[in-house]
Design goal:
7 helices; two-stranded antiparallel ribbon; alpha/beta; binds glycinamide ribonucleotide; single chain
Length: 214
């Protein structure tokens, strides 16, 4: 199961600001994650994530849904770009499209997503807003493998984040982001070290360091 001493190649897919991309890139720079970002791909030409990638000299691609006749040819174009880049792992970081069946099949067990809530609560694109509207007192972050459903895949890591009196979407999302910057690099590291085993709905983390032995 170990991927040995080799660094894995990852692609990061982002539609927006890309602060999670930045957190992963920093963790890689700091030697905490044995990986290399081979590609940043976006469905949005104006995504600031692309700018962040360019500044770091990371290759970028924009794949526009409007350039394709249907969703499945769009997904095939994404798969082709990822295969061309030769990536081992696909990291969805604020990528606001559902990965279609062909995409999921092509990278089965090799696509991760981060979600700003404790799944299975509050899936979808408005997780933080839905959390506040429901009035829960504890929210959090989930990193999970991607299956064909909406935020339904096997959960890798989670961290709870308190909802505080007077929070609005911005203040709660800012607090959640801080947890994301801890948990996404951690999940990518566990994958890169070959320490994640998917067994049905469950993801087993193979102990390998002081942190994970608990
Ligand atoms: C993150 O909070 C991520 O959890 C969320 O988008 C934000 C992207 O921030 N993703 C979803 O809501 C997916 N349904 P970033 O562009 O600064 O990394």
């Amino acid at each position: 199961m170990s991927r040995g001493d080799r660094k894995i190649d990852i692609a990061v897919l982002a539609s927006g600001s890309g602060t999670n991309l930045e957190a992963i890139a920093r963790a890689i720079d700091d030697g905490e994650v044995p990986a290399r970002i081979a590609l940043v791909l976006s469905d949005n030409p104006d995504a600031f994530a692309l700018e962040r990638a360019r500044k770091r000299g990371i290759p970028t691609r924009v794949v526009l849904l409007s350039d394709y006749p249907d969703r499945s040819s769009y997904d095939r174009a994404i798969v082709a770009a990822l295969e061309e880049a030769g990536v081992d792992l696909v990291v969805l970081a604020g990528y606001m499209k559902l990965a279609g069946p062909e995409f999921v099949r092509a990278f089965k067990g090799r696509i991760m997503n981060i979600h700003p809530a404790l799944l299975p609560s509050f899936p979808g694109t408005q997780g933080v807003r839905d959390t506040l509207e429901h009035g829960v007192k504890v929210s959090g972050v989930t990193v999970h493998f991607v299956d064909e459903g909406l935020d339904t895949g096997p959960i890798i890591v989670q961290e709870a984040v308190p909802v505080e009196e007077g929070d609005d979407e911005e203040t709660l999302h800012n607090r959640i982001h801080q947890a994301e910057y801890r948990q996404y690099p951690r999940a990518v590291r566990l994958f890169a070290e070959g320490r994640l085993e998917i067994d049905g709905r469950k993801v087993r983390v193979i102990p390998g360091s002081t942190e994970e032995r608990g």
